[in-house]
Amino acid sequence: MNIKIIGVGKVKEKYFKDGIAEYQKRLGRFCKFKIVEVADEPAPESLSQNEMVEVMAKEGERILSKIKDREYVFALAIKGKERSSEEFAKEINQLTTYGHSDLTFVIGGSLGLSPAVLKRANTEISFGRFTLPHKLMRLVLTEQIYRAFTIINGLPYHK
Ligand SMILES: C[S@@+](CC[C@H](N)C(=O)[O-])C[C@H]1O[C@@H](n2cnc3c(N)ncnc32)[C@H](O)[C@@H]1O
After folding, report:
1. How far apart are the CA of 66 and the centre of ligand 1, in A?
2. Domain annotation covers residue 7
């Protein structure tokens, strides 16, 4: 199975990169995992509402250009549906059982995801009502995908 995370902007911080690389390495035994980065737009504090919409729309177009029709898309959204780790593992397992071999997770930039990306998504997933920085979100998501595979495979990681 193929799992892809699409993120906006480059992760430059070593402490995030190291954490992501660790879980990426661990995921290698379960799936083909990759992270695709699309360019972010400058988003200074001074942007008007319309300019913010424009930033999200431009980033959204870049995200959508990386998604193929066959991909099942999870949009990460604070207002999306929360799951437990066990529920998330079951969902991944069911999706693969019913023929979805390409799962894609989309994380927005500093302003969030555009309506077009949310419309393309098959489901929205929330990690709770806290707003996490998108680069930290990438690390947390990678860990939760790894956790899901350990649950699916009955391995002693999840407690
Ligand atoms: C800094 S947040 C954007 C905040 C923006 N106000 C919003 O509501 O989307 C950047 C991205 O990280 C992801 N994200 C941050 N916190 C999240 C959470 N608690 N649950 C799900 N996704 C989250 C989302 O994809 C979001 O677009």
Report:
1. 19
2. yes
